[in-house]
Amino acid sequence: MVESIPLATATELIAAAEEKATEIENPMVITVANSEGNLVAQHRMDGAWLASVSISRNKAYTAAALETPTHELAEPSEPGNSLYGLQNTDDGQLVIFGGGYPLERDGEIVGTIGVSGGAVAQDRTVAEAGVDRWQELTE
Amino acid sequence: MVESIPLATATELIAAAEEKATEIENPMVITVANSEGNLVAQHRMDGAWLASVSISRNKAYTAAALETPTHELAEPSEPGNSLYGLQNTDDGQLVIFGGGYPLERDGEIVGTIGVSGGAVAQDRTVAEAGVDRWQELTE
Amino acid sequence: MVESIPLATATELIAAAEEKATEIENPMVITVANSEGNLVAQHRMDGAWLASVSISRNKAYTAAALETPTHELAEPSEPGNSLYGLQNTDDGQLVIFGGGYPLERDGEIVGTIGVSGGAVAQDRTVAEAGVDRWQELTE
Amino acid sequence: MVESIPLATATELIAAAEEKATEIENPMVITVANSEGNLVAQHRMDGAWLASVSISRNKAYTAAALETPTHELAEPSEPGNSLYGLQNTDDGQLVIFGGGYPLERDGEIVGTIGVSGGAVAQDRTVAEAGVDRWQELTE
After folding, report:
1. A6 lies in a domain?
2. Are D11 and C43 inside 8 Å of each other by CB?
3. Which among C5, C2, C3, C59 has a CA at the least distance from the CA of C30?
4. Engineered SS bond to A102: which of A2, A55, A109, C79, CB 3.0-4.6 Å?
5. Which Pfam family is one of this chain's hits (chains A, B, C, D) (predicted)?
């Protein structure tokens, strides 16, 4: 069974992320996906980069497909390390830099969030605002 | 510069479409795109088909890329008619059945809406609820 | 050896096609390719459809790849006919409706032209203006 | 509505770039795209590399999709840096070495130019001839 995040919850997480993006003055594209990495909702804020439409979606996909925050994938994917070449697999859907996070309930991943539109630090800050909102909702 | 539909407007159109989809008890995936067919916002209602994630997005793309409602493409694309084979072009992005509509302002296409999730008649009904909302907003 | 059309000639053919497109008031995308179907030059006239960027290029590709005008491919590709399914082959690059033409010199195909942006009859009229210019130049 | 670079302007920029490419004796492929990264015009100079057809187009795409000159992407995309893996995202459309530049008017990106065909230094020199021409035209 695919555990999913309801659309109403997904848009709440996106709203929290958008609020943070507005606060740091960096328009973002924000995607919430289900536990199979398939889209629940995606918003492109006014002025956000076009490339981020694909990248935010694939960050959300990657967090589901490898059940991990995407920023943990960069180091093992470097030349000489164990997963070197990871970013070229899975039909080019994997993103190995930060901004994608699993969303868990009772230790199970039930969805993910992926954010793109700025430097990686900004992407992570905005995505974490969505994760924080998720944690408030599931407490 | 892309004079696009702002995200706030896109989510209003999606809300109007969702309301109609709820009324007819048929969960849908709804996408609003800009005039170049690139995503502004996309929502997958709870229970909507997975295939509709791609189809609704490509209906929105098609309405922009050929500047036409997608239901007008079916007949000319039939075997024996002038555009037979159209559905196999443009990297498989063109959808030739109903549910994609241009959104115009002062005679210019400034965005599109694409809906998928039911029979084509249902898809069109839900998409037209979004188009109607657009027309109210631009009056 | 790949026989090619020089860029200077390609832009002359495109100019002739653009003149015709302007005359019939239908903005078009026009591509000239070499005998391997690879691009020499492509112009998108102001207001031409986005989908035509891909379709005009693939009409030029198809005319080279099958050494035939594309309008001759529709009938054999219909259900029940010998090439049914052709439009799904070659990684989706083949276009089976009119608007792509080989350009010959001494009975050899040395390039192609592909036009998209209107009804098929319009596409063919505009492409043929390019073919006519080619014939004047090679006489 | 896409406020794009008109075709007539695009071919002027390409002509300026071609003149520079001729001067440095390095045939190039030159693409001008609109602000969403979609093609306005593309020319392959006689003798230019086949791979450059795709690369020049994707440099133009990248400059639009990330709103940045492409040469600024190389360093952050190196192993160990924050965007390592960027070149594998967005369906392989992103080029992270030099030769793609945004074209701005009143601080807004209204199009881009992408050049490929030589060493990156040559690509940049030729692309910058197009950017210079753009700046003369918009003064």
Report:
1. no
2. yes
3. C59
4. A109
5. HbpS-like
Per DSSP, A88 falls in state: G
pLDDT tens, residue by residue, D83-106: 999 999 999 999 999 999 999 998
**pLDDT over threshold 70, residue B81:** yes
The pLDDT score that the predictor gives to residue D4 is 82
State pLDDT tens for residues A66-113. Answer: 999 999 999 999 999 999 999 999 999 999 999 999 999 999 999 999
Put simply, the answer to whether B7 touches A42 (Cβ < 8 Å) is no
Q: What is the ipTM of this complex?
A: 0.96
Chains that touch A (3 or more CB pairs under 8 A): B, D
Decide if D2 is inside a domain: no
A29-47 mean pLDDT: 97
Q: Report the chain C residue with the minimal C-alpha distance to residue B77.
A: C97
Contact (CB, 8 A) for A134 and A100:
no
The mean of the pLDDT values for chain A is 96
In a domain, B89, yes or no: yes
What is the distance in angstroms between the Cα of B121 and the nearest Cα belonging to chain C? 25
Residue C88 in any domain: the answer is yes
Residue D3, pLDDT above cutoff 90: no
CATH of the domain at C25: 3.30.450.150
Number of independent structural domains in chain C: 1
User: Terminal CA-to-CA distance of chain C, rounded, Å?
Assistant: 23
The answer to whether A35 touches A111, Cβ cutoff 8 Å, is: yes
Which structure tokens are listed for A84? Answer: 């070197």
Which residues in chain B are contacts of D110 at CB distance < 8 A? 1
- Contact list in A for residue D96 (CB cut-off 8 A) is none
Q: Which domain holds residue B121?
A: 10-137
Distance of residue A50 Cα from the nearest chain D Cα, in angstroms: 5
- Chain C contact partners (≥3 CB pairs within 8 A): B, D
Joined tokens for residue A54: 């694909």
Q: Give the E-state strand segments of chain C in sequence order.
A: 29-34, 39-44, 100-105, 108-116
Average pLDDT over residues A22-45: 98
